[in-house]
Amino acid sequence: MLRYAFTLFLGAVLSLGALGERAQAAEPLKVVATTAMIADAAREIGGARVDVTALMGPGVDPHAYRQTRTDILNMTRADLVLWNGLYLEAQLEDFMGSLAERQAVAAVAEAVPAELLLGHDDYENRFDPHVWMDPDLWRYVVGGVRDALISVDEAHAETYRANAETYLATIGELGAYARTVLSSIPEDGRVLLSAHDAFKYFGQAYGFEVMGIQGISTESEAGLRRIQELVDLVVERQISAVFVESSVSDRNIRALIEGAAAQGHEVSIGGELFSDAMGEAGTYEGTYQGMIDHNATIITRALGGEAEAGGMNGRLAAGS
Predict the structure, then answer these.
(1) Using one digit for the tens of pLDDT, what is the confidence trace for 11-23?
(2) Rounded to whole angstroms, how far apart are CA atoms 35 and 50?
(3) Could you give the C-alpha distances from 239 to 151, 178, 197, 268, 307, in angstroms and in order?
(4) Following DSSP, what letter does each residue of 263-287 receive, concatenated?
(5) How far apart are CA 149 and CA 79, in angstroms?
(6) Would the CATH topology of 2-178 be identical to that of 184-313?
(7) What's the CATH code, domain 184-313?
């Protein structure tokens, strides 16, 4: 009954959206993106040609996110809807499938070649969706956003291509910075332990052993046995710093720290990382460049490497 009511609601909204189409082609495209990372790419590539809305703000967990009525209105009235795909927005999959039958919808992370994707720990025949953790892989997503914009606004294709090239150059510089500072961490200290397993692409790109208390999806609960296993590992290998995440509760990380303390080993929180969400809108950390700059700089400094507190261009917030 609820499913039927939802279908009726969606149909009504779609009808209203069709009646409310823009009267003038010169108006900016209305673009809705699920995550702030995708929204950032759309703004950089679209420039003045787009009006972008991100559904998920700072601190929001996309694995568990469910669409609201406001989200449905925004998406059905949009010229283009962009989502990550790869089962990141697990609760939105059915809705996105229905929406794609009626209007322009693109799962932009699926532009990454399958041979470059890592398997999903929790679901067979699915991939790890956290591709933004490696700027080299994010380049494919930028291409997916560019192509999606061109598909709905071919008249401005050259603008989108030129803006994408400029953005890709920035991402290239970001990746180079991350490689440089992270390589300054002693090899035996390149262990990244965080709240959930969002950093595998990061680990693959920069030579880190990566461990998460929870699995790839935050929907998987971390049991006491898993926490105890990691406590034993932290104590045995004398790991000195672990990391919390802005979009995941720090409860399990703090339990791990307490467990290590009970065995006589002190572990500190190396800092808060951006995993499934960026920083506050309007801040440098609220951009993709700022997000990755922050993570690379925080990890480097916490694990004994060399990086300026202000990051690659001195723009990181003090104490971040």
Answers:
(1) 544 444 443 444 3
(2) 16
(3) 49, 22, 17, 9, 20
(4) TT---EEEEEEPSSS-S-TTSGGGS
(5) 9
(6) yes
(7) 3.40.50.1980
**Dist. CA 68–CA 60, nearest whole Å:** 14
The H-or-E segment that residue 30 falls in is: strand 29-33
Contacting residues for 254 by C-beta, under 8 A, at least 6 apart: none
> Residues near 236 by Cβ (< 8 Å), separated by ≥ 6?
none
Q: What are the tens digits of pLDDT across the range 123-172?
A: 788 999 999 999 999 999 999 999 999 999 999 999 999 999 999 999 99
193, β-bridge pairs: 211
Residue 28: which of 50, 54, 57 has the closest Cα? 50
Domain 2-178 adopts which CATH fold? Rossmann fold (3.40.50)
**Closest Cα to residue 105, out of 6, 46, 197, 38?**
38
- Give the residue among 62, 35, 40 at the shortest CA–CA distance from 196: 62
Instruction: Please give the DSSP secondary-structure letter assigned to residue 110.
Output: G
Q: Are 242 and 257 in contact (CB under 8 A)?
A: yes
